[in-house]
Amino acid sequence: MRFHRVLATAGVVVALASVSACSSLPSGGSPQETGELLRSTLHCEKVDIATPPEVARVEAMGMKGINGGGECDEPADGGGDADFLTIEDMEAFQTAVKGDEDEQDDLMVGDDFAVDPGSDDQRRKLLDAGLLFLNCTPGFHAPEGKTADDAEVDGCSTTDYSKDLD
To answer: Global pTM?
Structure first.
């Protein structure tokens, strides 16, 4: 399993923490159900679920409130694997990552999970499936025509806008 990608990009994956209190975000429920949601949305070749020791290593890197994760291998668009984490305590998880500003607006969240997509095509598909981007940039305001809702921790929001999405 190539879950090491999550471990290697901990700073990026940590920023997956935020989820809006909005009840319209999709819910994964468990690592397996989240993997199935990603499989149907991104058309993954397969989904690898993280083992308990892999999840423990991610937690040891500072990610709080997680209870699982995995990887959507070889999505149909060829944009690279998409890593995901399932989250049992969004507030604790988001609090742990609020200070990490790297690439937060490219990370996507559901109600109880977060995804690090591998391409703009994946980001668009995930937006269409109801996920939103996390943004903890100080003073962030979504441009006209885009939305932004308060996330679990002050200073972060979930939005359908990413400055990097072409």
So the answer is: 0.83
